[in-house]
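If you are new to this repository, start here. Below is one unmodified record pulled from the training split, so you can see the exact layout before writing a loader.
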Amino acid sequence: MRSGAYQVRVQDKVLEYQIVRSPRAKNVGVRIFPSEVRVVLPRGVPVRAAVDFMERVKGRVFRARERVLLQDERLKSLTDIAYVDGATFPVLGKPVTLHVIRERRTRARLTFEGRLVVRVDDSLSSSACEQQVRRKVEAWIKDLVYLEAQRLAAALGNRLGIVPSGIRVKAPRRQWGSCGSNRVINLNWRLGLFPRRVLWYVVVHEVAHLRYMNHSPAFWRLVKMLMPDFEVHREWLRFRGGGEG
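And here is the target side for that same chain:
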């Protein structure tokens, strides 16, 4: 439950934040998003505690907020695709050019012919055309991510004797990957826009969680055994925003 909008001054700038109550919170805490800053209050704790808390940590929160916004801009520059004829974007580290053909047809169709060709009905408006192209291109990238992850997870499974119960390619806002107690690995389809070994690192990370459902030293030793240069790809993701599961 939200308790309203507040603000705190940091030197000559104003930082706005929301106070949000959570029955699960045990202590006052801060969550920073590109769209807003939230101070989370446990049930029964007065609003004044959140105001006082923000006054104490405002400098750190402001700097963290600036980093989040910068990462968000970097991420958008990497993952925003123009779904129009002639657009070029990377797929697993290699540039792909999109060619949109408008012709008489009832259903959109995508083929890869050295370039990505999407054929759509020429009676569609420009916005409807772009939506159909978007759906086709994103579905194609999801399939690539799934197949790449499936092959790697199978190879790692043969090596470790542990395999996921499934792989899902989804569109979360921030996380690149996650692995739950159901042993299903979830991957962000936008990983297909990054270098192939960055995707591999996320798969390795989540497969390692099948043995260690934590980020303990043993977990990181396993990740390093499976991918000795993992830190390079981990830093690549950290620089661009988002998180690992």
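Two things worth knowing about this chain: The helical segments are 47-79, 126-160, 196-208, 217-226, 230-240. The first strand starts at residue 2 and ends at 10.
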